[in-house]
Amino acid sequence: MELAIISDTHIPSRASAIPEEFRDRLRRADRVVHAGDVDSSAALADVVSLATELTAVAGNTDPDLGLPRTATLEVGGVTLAVTHGAGAPRGYEGRLTAAGQEADADVVVGGHTHEPLDTTRDGLRLLNPGSATGAWPAEIATMLMARPDDDGLTVQRHESR
User: Fold this and answer.
1) What average pLDDT does this structure show over 65-93?
2) Which of 12, 32, 98, 110 registers the highest number of CB atoms within 10 A of its CB?
3) Across all residues in the chain, what is the average pLDDT?
4) Which residues span the domain enclosing 132?
């Protein structure tokens, strides 16, 4: 089971498209996780068309797309909580940790900052794929690919310029 993890695509307000090499990864993944700020119904439809299965949450700049604020999924024995994590930069990791504790998760996927993150706090692994389009304030487009294993998740970061 392979997960493609993206966030903060901001199409069309800050970017025009997900880079082609990332689109290929989304197509090949067993499930796509989008941690919010899709930006439009057309951008959401595009991600839906690429994904075998999709888990997506609403971000702070999303119009009403019918997406939940949080989602929980289980992949290979690993429970993931997905949230955008909106708010001030100070306290970001605390917001992700609280969402993970509330969901009784092993891993929390967040977005919002446009900066990749892979750290552990209070026993929870916190992941942020950055912006899949390199939308400002990101300097480059980034995403994560993850596979469950005996130790939780093996995660690889990918970049596109």
Assistant:
1) 96
2) 110
3) 97
4) 3-160
Number of domains forming the structure of the chain: 1
Backbone angles phi, psi at 48, to 5 degrees: -60, -40
Domain CATH code at residue 28: 3.60.21.10
Establish how many alpha carbons lie within 13 A of residue 48's alpha carbon, considering only the half-sphere containing its beta carbon.
9
Q: Name the pLDDT band for 38 (thresholds 50, 70, 90).
A: very high
CB 7 within 8 A of CB 125: no
Q: Which residues of 86-119 are buried (b: 16+ CB within 10 A; e: fewer)?
A: beeeeebbebbbbbbeebebbbbbbbbbbbbbee
At a CB cut-off of 8 Å and minimum separation 6, what does 26 contact? 4, 6, 18, 32, 47, 50, 51
- Asked whether residue 17 carries a pLDDT value surpassing 90, the answer given is yes
Backbone angles phi, psi at 60, to 5 degrees: -70, -20
pTM of the model: 0.97
The contacts of residue 134 (CB under 8 Å, 6+ apart) are 15, 140, 141, 142, 160, 161
